Amino acid sequence: MNPVWDLDPILLTLPWAGVTIRYYGLIFSAVFLGGFFLFYWQTIRDGATAEQAFDIIIPGFLGLLLGARLGHVLFYNFDYFSQNPAAIFRVWEGGLTSHGAAVGLAAALWYYARKQKLSFLTVSDRFVFSASLGAGLVRLGNFLNSEIVGKITASAWGIRFPLYDGLPAELTPARYPTQLLESAMGLLILALLLIADRLLKGRARPKGVLSALFLVLYFIGRFLVEFLKERHGPADNLWLSRGQILSLPAIVAGIILGAVCLTGFRSRTAGAEPPPQGSQGPPDHRTKHSQRANTKTDKKRRLK
Description:
It is a single chain. The chain is mainly alpha-helical and 304 residues long. The protein has one domain. It contains eleven helices and four strands, in the order E-E-H-H-H-H-H-H-E-H-E-H-H-H-H. It has a two-stranded antiparallel ribbon with strand order 1-2. A hairpin with a 4-residue loop joins strand 1 (10-14) and strand 2 (19-22).
C-alpha cells in the first residue's frame, strides 16, 4: 500500500487579521534567509563589506519573485492569464517557476554587479550556493503543498496525493514524488559546490567555474526528473516537456562557460610554470666564475 500525503498546506490562520500562514510561506522565508547567509559568507570572504552584501537583498528579492511569476505566466499558463490579467498579481495562489526565477535572478545579479563594479561571473559564483539551497527548499515546499507532482506509477515508492487529484485517499493513484527528488538534487548540488569550493581554496579559482558547474548539474538533473513529472496541462504535449526545453539552453551555456573557464585557467597556469630542468636559462655570474676556477685548476694539474 503506497503512503498517502494529504497534509493541509495551511499551518494556521490568524482570524483577527484574516491571514493564513502556509508551510510554503515558511519555506520561502527560509530560502531568503539561508540564501542571503550563503551569499553574505561568500561576499565577506572575498574581502567585500557587509554593506555590499546587503545590497543584494532588494534586487534579489524582486528578481526572484517577478521572474518566477512571469515565467509561470508566459511559459505555462499564458492563455489563462491573458484573459485574467488581474490574476497575475495573486502570487499567494501559487504559480512560480524555477526557470523564470533563474532569468529574474540573472537580471538581478547583472544589476548588482554593475552597481558594485564587479564581474558578473564573480557575483554569480558567489550566488550559486544560494541558488542550490533555494532549489532544494522550494521543492520541499511544493511537496508540502501537494503540487508539482510526478506521473502515476505502480512502483512501491510512489506516493498518493489526494489534495492534488481531488479524490478519496483509497481511490487516489500513486505518483512519483518528484518534488522530493528535486529537493534532494538541489541539496546534493549545494554539497558538491561546497566541496569544489574547498578543493579550489587557496588557488587562482577560474572565474565562472562554479556558475558553470551549477548550470550543468542542476539543469541536467532537472531535465532527467522531468521524465517522471506530470505535464502542465494539455498544451504541454510535445515529446519533451516545457521544463526540459527550457533547461536545454542553460545546459549548453554551462558547458560552454565551463570549457572557456578551464581553457583560460590552463593557459594561465601553463604560462606560469617554471622552465623544465635542462632548459637554457639566463647565465649566472657565479656559475661562470666557478667554471673559470675549475678550468684553472685543471691546467695546474696538467702542468704538474
